[in-house]
Specification:
CATH topology of the largest domain: Dihydrodipicolinate Reductase, domain 2
Bound molecules: nicotinamide-adenine-dinucleotide
CATH class of the largest domain: Alpha Beta
Order of helices and strands: EHEHEHEHEHEHEHHEEEEEEEEEHHE
Helix content: 25-40%
Strand order of the largest sheet: 16-15-14-13-7-12-11-8-17
Radius of gyration: 21 Å
Oligomer: single chain
CATH architecture of the largest domain: 2-Layer Sandwich
């Protein structure tokens, strides 16, 4: 099998999740390339070396430019913070490498558009790591909607709730807390958490026409972990918006890091003419489904344990009835990416799909500032 040499940038949470996926995918899915963890890249040499050792990377780079310049790297995987996605992706596309990029695709739509143009001009395979599409229960929701089981969709309701930034002592900037620093993150929960909800929604329910939003920054100043100085907080701590989809359905979206008791509660509910669907990240292997066409005496919400061989992705894992978890969504994403490269039909979400989400988050932030309904651009 022809090798596929991976160059991984970033050794944090996502560097680990992606490395795990690259290592496992060939054990469970019929891929046509031999994945080689060729090089890990991070700015701190000792930490990058330790990461490379743990995950089995053959070599280490401390400058992503050197990684991209290497002839023995086929694919650049950007698992670094949002502020560096664009310049790395542009350079990787110019060098003719395949590019996978973490979400949100960019700091703003202008950057994201440049990235889309670069990968499309260079004709390099590309994808954004919106991994929730590939949780089997979420993929099953897509299948049920596409089969028309819900009928006309009236409502889409999504939330992503966390509680880790309530204390004013949490700094902004630096390792782990870069998400609170607008210069590195671009925005707060809108680009971080809502971006996931929006990507899933665009996939399941089509495009969003317009939004009206409100955001709040509850803690106005925080010490910067790198400078030690108290600085104004530039991110949104909480964000909520109403949306109209192009198919006529209405939606509410909410994300916050101030919902005490919730660590990563991503839920969505879709109500159609015939049926409804509900999914909850804390119970990710289940899909709740209600079908009004069932006989009245047995009609009710059914909790589908998505673990059988005829349900998405599951025949590649263990035996029916045994559930899988969060990390498997990344394995599925690599499997689908490689299948797309092999067939010439790129798996979504491509960079262009990532731009579509960035257009929505941008409209949300603009609407929150203006207090007006704001149209969403088409990607
Ligand atoms: N798909 C998901 O569910 C999901 C979950 C978490 C994070 N993310 C996204 O993944 C990305 C990384 O987030 P994380 O949670 O892994 O963060 P993290 O803080 O755990 O890791 C960030 C990594 O980026 C590296 N980095 C930053 N600038 C760099 C540079 N110039 N050169 C090389 N490396 C650099 C850091 O050293 C670190 O290794 C972000 O874009 C984030 O939004 C996605």
């Amino acid at each position: 099998m022809k090798p596929l040499n991976i160059g991984m940038i970033g050794y944090g949470f996502m560097g680990r999740a992606h490395s795990n996926a690259f290592r496992k995918v060939g054990n469970f899915f019929p891929i046509d390339r031999r994945i080689v963890l060729k090089a890990a890249c991070g700015r701190d040499g000792a930490k990058t070396q330790a990461f490379a050792h743990t995950w089995g990377y053959e070599s280490v780079e401390t400058d992503w430019r050197a990684l991209i310049a290497r002839d023995d790297i086929d694919l650049i995987d950007i698992a670094a913070t949002n502020n560096v996605h664009a310049e790395i992706a542009l350079a990787a596309a110019r060098a003719g490498k395949m590019v996978l990029c973490e979400k949100p695709l960019a700091m703003n739509p202008a950057e994201a558009l440049k990235m889309v143009k670069a990968v499309e001009k260079a004709k390099v395979p590309n994808m954004v790591w919106y991994n929730y599409r590939r949780v089997p229960a979420v993929t099953l929701a897509k299948q049920l909607i596409d089969e028309g089981r819900l009928g006309k969709i009236f409502h889409y309701r999504a939330k992503f709730l966390q509680d880790w930034t309530i204390s004013a002592d949490v700094p902004q900037g630096g390792q782990g807390t870069w998400r609170l620093d607008a210069a590195v993150a671009g925005s707060g929960v809108t680009g971080d958490l809502l971006a996931h909800c929006i990507d899933t929604a665009l996939w399941l329910n089509g495009g969003i026409k317009e939004v009206t939003a409100m955001t709040e920054t509850f803690v106005k100043e925080r010490q910067h972990a790198l400078t030690g100085k108290k600085q104004k907080v530039g991110i949104d701590d909480a964000s909520a918006f109403l949306a109209r989809f192009r198919n006529g359905s209405l939606a509410t979206f909410e994300a916050t890091r101030y919902a005490r008791g919730h660590k990563a509660l991503y839920t969505f509910e879709i109500n159609g003419e015939h049926a409804s669907i509900f999914w909850d990240l804390h119970d990710l292997h289940r899909l709740q489904y209600f079908d009004h066409r069932d006989d009245g005496v047995i009609r009710g919400w059914r909790s589908i344990h998505v673990s059988d061989g005829d349900q998405p992705y599951m025949k590649n894992w263990w035996v029916p009835g045994l559930q899988i978890g969060y990390e498997h969504s990344f394995v599925h994403q690599v499997a689908d990416f490689l299948a797309g490269v092999a067939s010439g039909q790129l798996a979504a979400p491509t960079f262009r799909d990532g731009l579509a989400t960035d257009y929505v988050t941008d409209a949300v932030l603009k609407s929150a500032r203006s207090g007006q309904w704001t149209k969403v651009k088409s990607a």
